[in-house]
């Protein structure tokens, strides 16, 4: 088979913290190894920033990473693409969140920054993802905002309408926002990025095209990826919208859906 490039979301696809699956299942690991031996390229394609990938994701299984919802791409340890937010927009967003007393953190290509006074957001990630050592808490806010790819904010139900009004009235088309997996979090990032734009950078690098791509995901931020790739696979535990757009819906992660569909799509 001609060389293909496979793009995998993390949460809900390769692992599922809420479902008690903290590590890539052994059957999936075996399939990924087999695919690499066949010469295919394997990529993480996630909304996570690089700082939220602990060491297990850098064990050589994956050839590269499309991160920050497509805002940062790294191949073979080398950064090939970075799309930073407009500084003035980024500054305005941070000021808005502070005026509304919303906790927020700033993601750059390689680091995560958070004011230590934002205890609710900080504690959410520390308790759920063990990311304590990955946060930088002493920094020059304005300097960091100049390198920001994404801002993630904790928005309570009381502030949700205010945030949506600010976005609608003050930002218009120049900012995208997306709800994260946590109940009260919003992500703000450039409107010129998505997982699909990051995937295109990978294809350009390898001189391949869309016919050579496969995508595997479960959430709404996987929509562009699923629609862009030649074959889009939604996990059985995926949201209904993604299932409707996918070419294939496999079984849930808890039922070894990813392992099974890889065996079918890439038979010996």
Automatic annotation (TrEMBL):
Regions that span the bilayer: none
This protein's record includes keyword Cell membrane: no
Parts forming coiled coils: none
Keyword Hydrolase: yes
Molecular function in Gene Ontology: magnesium ion binding; phosphatase activity
GO cellular component terms, A-Z: cytosol
Keywords from the UniProt entry: Hydrolase
Domain of life: Bacteria
UniProt xrefs under Pfam families: Hydrolase_3
InterPro entries listed in its UniProt record: Cof, HAD-like_sf, HAD-SF_hydro_IIB, HAD_sf
UniProt protein name: Cof-type HAD-IIB family hydrolase
Annotated organism of origin: Faecalibacillus faecis
């Amino acid at each position: 088979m001609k060389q293909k490039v496979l793009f995998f979301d993390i949460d809900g696809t390769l692992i599922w913290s809420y479902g008690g699956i903290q590590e890539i299942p052994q059957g999936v690991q075996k399939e990924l190894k087999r695919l690499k031996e066949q010469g295919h390229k394997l990529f993480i394609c996630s909304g996570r920033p690089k700082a939220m990938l602990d060491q297990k994701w850098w064990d050589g299984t994956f050839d590269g990473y499309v991160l920050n919802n497509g805002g940062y791409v790294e191949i073979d340890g080398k950064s090939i693409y970075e799309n930073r937010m407009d500084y003035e927009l980024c500054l305005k967003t941070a000021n808005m969140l502070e005026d509304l007393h919303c906790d927020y953190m700033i993601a750059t290509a390689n680091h995560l920054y958070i004011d230590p006074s934002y205890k609710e957001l900080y504690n959410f990630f520390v308790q759920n993802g063990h990311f304590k050592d990955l946060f930088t808490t002493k920094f020059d806010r304005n300097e960091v905002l100049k390198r920001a790819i994404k801002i993630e904010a904790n928005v309570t139900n009381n502030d949700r309408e205010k945030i949506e009004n600010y976005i609608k009235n003050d930002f218009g088309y120049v900012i995208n926002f997306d709800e994260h997996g946590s109940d009260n979090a919003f992500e703000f990032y450039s409107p010129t990025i998505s997982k699909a734009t990051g995937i295109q950078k990978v294809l350009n690098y390898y001189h391949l095209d869309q016919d050579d791509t496969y995508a595997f995901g479960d959430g709404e931020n996987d929509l562009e990826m699923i629609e862009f790739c030649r074959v889009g696979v939604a996990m059985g535990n995926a949201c209904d919208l993604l299932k409707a757009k996918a070419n294939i819906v496999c079984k849930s992660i808890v039922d070894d859906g990813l392992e099974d569909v890889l065996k079918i799509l890439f038979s010996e």
